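Appendix C. Worked example: Threonine synthase
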Amino acid sequence: EPLCRSGVWRFSELLPFAPPEKIVTIGEGQTPLIATDGVAKYVGTNPGTLFLEYEGMNPSGSFKDNGMTAAFTHAHMIGAKRAACASTGNTSASLALYCCSSKLMQAVIFIGSGKISYGKLSQALDYGALTIQIAGDFDDAMLRVQQVSKELGIYLVNSVNPFRLEGQKTIMFRVLESLDWQIPDWIVVPGGNLGNSSAFGKAFHELHALGLIDRIPRLAVINAAGANTLNSLYNDNGLRWNGGRPDQAIINKYYAGLDAASSKADTIASAIEINRPVNLMKCLRALDWCDGVVREVTDQQMLDAKAQVGANGFGCEPASAASVAGAKLLREQGVIAPSDRVVCILTGHQLKDPTATIAYHTTDQEEFNRVLGKRGVSRAAFANR
Ligand code: F0G
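Step 2, the predicted output written as C-alpha cells:
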C-alpha cells in the first residue's frame, strides 16, 4: 500500500533492485509539472511551451528525495545502521529525514564551513542528524566523507551511489507521463555534482532501448559561472564521452590548474557551489546519449530568473533558477527555438535559502551589500520588469 503513494516506486519495474518489503518511502516524488506562460515569455518561447517540474514539492523540499528513497532502501537491504553524505544542504536534509522518519539508521552529515543555507541546516538539526562542519568547502567535505565512510564502514548516500541515480530517473518518467508521453524538445537542469543530468540521460537511454519512446529530448546542463567545471571542460576544452574514452589528460590538466591556483567554487547558488563533480563521467555519457549542451549562467542571471519564477507564482532556490536562466540564454543564442517545448527542473524549494532572495529584493543597502555586494549583482532587471 505505501508504494502507491510514492512517485518513485510506482515505477519499480524500471528500478528493479528492491524487494517490496524492504522499500523505505515517505511519499516522495508527488511533484507537479506546470506550464507557465509568464516564464515562457521571460525565456522567449511561445505560449504553452514552457514547463516547470516542481521538485521543491518533495517531503524534504528538494529533488533529492527521489534518489534518497532508493539509496536508503538499498542501505536497509544490506543492513546498514549508519548513513553518511557530504552536502551543500539538500542531500543532508533528505538523508536526515529518511533516517528520523524510518528510525532505521543514524544520519552523519559533512558540511563545508559557512557553506550551507540556514533553511537546509535547520532541517538536518531538527531531524537529528549528527552534523559535522569541516574546515573547507563542499569539494573538501566530499573527499572527507568518502574516506571516513570507507574506514568506518558507513553507508555513503552521495550521488556516487548508483542507487541514488536509479531513483532520480523517475523525475523524467513523471515528466513524460505528465506530457502524455509527447516527448519535449529540451530538458534543462542545473548541474552541480551532476547526478540529475546523469540520471536523466540513463532514464531516456533505457526508455528508448525498451522501445517506450522513439525520440530522446535534448539535455541542457547549466552550471553556475562560479562553479563551472563541466562548462569549461565541455565547451572550452572540448571534452567528450568519446565512446567511453574521454580524454583523461584534459581532466587532469584542468584539476591541476584548479589546485595550482587554489581555486574554489564561488556562487550565490550554494547548492551547486561544486568544482569537482563526482558524476562527471556519467554526465558526459548522458550528454552523448541526449545530444546535450552545457552552459554557465551568472549569479545575476540566476537571481533575475528566480525572481521571474517567483513573480509567476512558483518558488525555487537560486541554484534551481539556473535551469530557467539557462533556457533563456539558449533561446537568445538561437539553440532553443521559439516553438520548442522546454522543461526546466526546479530542483529545490524557495524557502530553502531565503537569504539571497531577501537581499535581492531589499531596499536596505547594507543588507544588499552584505549578501550580494561582492557579486556584481544589481536589482535593476527585476525592478524594471
Ligand atoms: N539544485 C539543488 C537545489 C541542489 O541541492 C543540487 C545539489 C543541485 C541542483 C545539483 O544537482 O548534483 O545532481 O547536479 N545539491 C547537492 C547537495 C550537492 O549536497 O544537496 P546535481
